[in-house]
């Protein structure tokens, strides 16, 4: 299943996902996973959230996977700016911590979902596609 329309109104071939994580190995794993899942593609990756808005515009990403804990940065501030400037983009906060306070803070900042980094890949793909599809419904 793919999203119903893209930012310019044309049907996309797959959901474009932008990944933001300070760990290069995590980014490689996500790119591999997204590259091999039907209906989903890795639109790009960042090791910092500093150029997130710019990359959203460049890649036309529909979903952002945002690491909760990027050293020296506030992922929640990046998430708030993302939702202010690109409210049509769904954000999944990815966390290595199973902490209810983190989940609550991410959801309050505008995350559509908060998932653990050890989430089942099939579940992650399902969430990505559902979020992109519902954003264009």
Walk me through what this model shows.
- It is a single chain.
- This protein has a single domain (15-135), classed as Response regulator (Rossmann fold), CATH 3.40.50.
- Mean pLDDT is 88; it is low at 1-11.
- The two termini are 13 Å apart.
- With 137 residues, the protein is α/β, with parallel strands linked by helices.
- It has 5 helices and 5 strands, in the order βαβαβαβαβα.
- The protein has helices at 24-35, 52-59, 75-85, 100-109, 121-135, and strands at residues 15-20, 40-46, 63-67, 90-95, 113-116.
- α1 links the parallel β1 (15-20) and β2.
- It is globular.
- A 5-stranded parallel beta sheet has the order 2-1-3-4-5, with helices on both faces.
Distance between the termini: 13 Å
Ranges where pLDDT stays below 50 over 5 or more residues in a row are 1-11
Q: Please report the first level of CATH classification, the CATH class.
A: Alpha Beta
Strand content: 15-25%
- Taken together, the total number of domains comes to 1
The pLDDT mean sits at: 88
Major sheet: arrangement of strands: 2-1-3-4-5
Query: Radius of gyration, Cα only, in angstroms?
Result: 13 Å
CATH superfamily: Response regulator
């Amino acid at each position: 299943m793919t999203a119903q329309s893209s930012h310019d109104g044309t049907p996309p071939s797959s959901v474009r996902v932008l990944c933001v994580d300070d760990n290069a190995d995590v980014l490689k794993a996500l790119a591999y996973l997204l590259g091999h899942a039907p209906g989903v593609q890795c639109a790009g990756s960042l090791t910092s959230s500093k150029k997130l808005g710019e990359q959203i515009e460049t890649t036309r990403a529909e979903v952002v996977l945002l690491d909760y804990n990027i050293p020296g940065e506030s992922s929640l501030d990046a998430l708030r700016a993302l939702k202010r400037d690109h409210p049509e983009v769904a954000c999944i906060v990815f966390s290595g911590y199973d902490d209810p306070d983190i989940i609550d803070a991410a959801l309050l900042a505008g995350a559509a979902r908060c998932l653990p980094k050890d989430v089942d890949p099939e579940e992650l793909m399902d969430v990505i596609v559902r979020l992109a599809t519902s954003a264009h419904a």
